[in-house]
Amino acid sequence: MVKAVLDAGVVVTGAGGGIGAALARRFAAEGARVVVNDLDADKAKAVAEEIGGTAVPGDASAIVADARDALGGTVDVYCANAGVAFEDGAADGPLDERTWGLSWDVNVMAHVRAAHELLPGWLERGGGRFVSTVSAAGLLTMIGAPSYSVTKHGAYAFAEWLSLTYRHRGLKVHAICPQGVRTDMLAATGSAGDLVLHPTAIAPKAVADALFRGIEEDRFLILPHPEVAGFYQARAGDPDRWLAGMNHLQRTWEETR
């Protein structure tokens, strides 16, 4: 058992399946009391019943108060996991107002809104844990998915900001940045995901395992695909070379479409 989460009140958004369900299962197995959130009420209820948790369905941006009540008044760990992904990088440009608006609202603002609700209590208590499911796309960039790439960069930046601003006041922050994970969201990445993500895709459980190793080691950046660290270093060390390589990948993708 990980002492940091034993009997903790935990909220996991987007937990009706995929990474969220895996996180909810792992927290419950570690002795936490878990609120399972999902837009799909039936999926949330099914996972909650499986793990002995409580289902609080609805928009992830607006469930903190209900989740807090379900946990007896205190949220100790908040997993901002709900997200959306689109293949919206058409050859004629990246502008699709609907996907940009939805991506920004779910992938970034839901995190901001949750933190806004949680921070006063956490700072008063001197402790809390915010887990942001970002993506390797938030450290790098994903071909064919501009709204996903940009908003995941935003989610990562917000997690960094939370950590650097409040760590001396007891806030623990973790940013999970996997590449491909075998979930429904992976299918939404379309042919670009088939080329880039499918070959090394891992199971959702592996993401939960990586998070718990990070919790035990008190690490901010969680890399379920360790090779992402090298890619991130290469991007920072020689941006032009990295961009040239990514453009080669882009051209390969265009040739296969």
From TrEMBL:
Keywords: Oxidoreductase. Pfam families: adh_short. InterPro entries: NAD(P)-bd_dom_sf, Sc_DH/Rdtase_CS, SDR_fam. The keyword Oxidoreductase applies. PROSITE patterns: ADH_SHORT (PS00061). Belongs to the short-chain dehydrogenases/reductases (SDR) family. PANTHER family: 5-KETO-D-GLUCONATE 5-REDUCTASE (PTHR43669), ALCOHOL DEHYDROGENASE, PUTATIVE (AFU_ORTHOLOGUE AFUA_3G03445)-RELATED (PTHR43669:SF3). This is SDR family oxidoreductase. It comes from Streptomyces albidocamelliae.
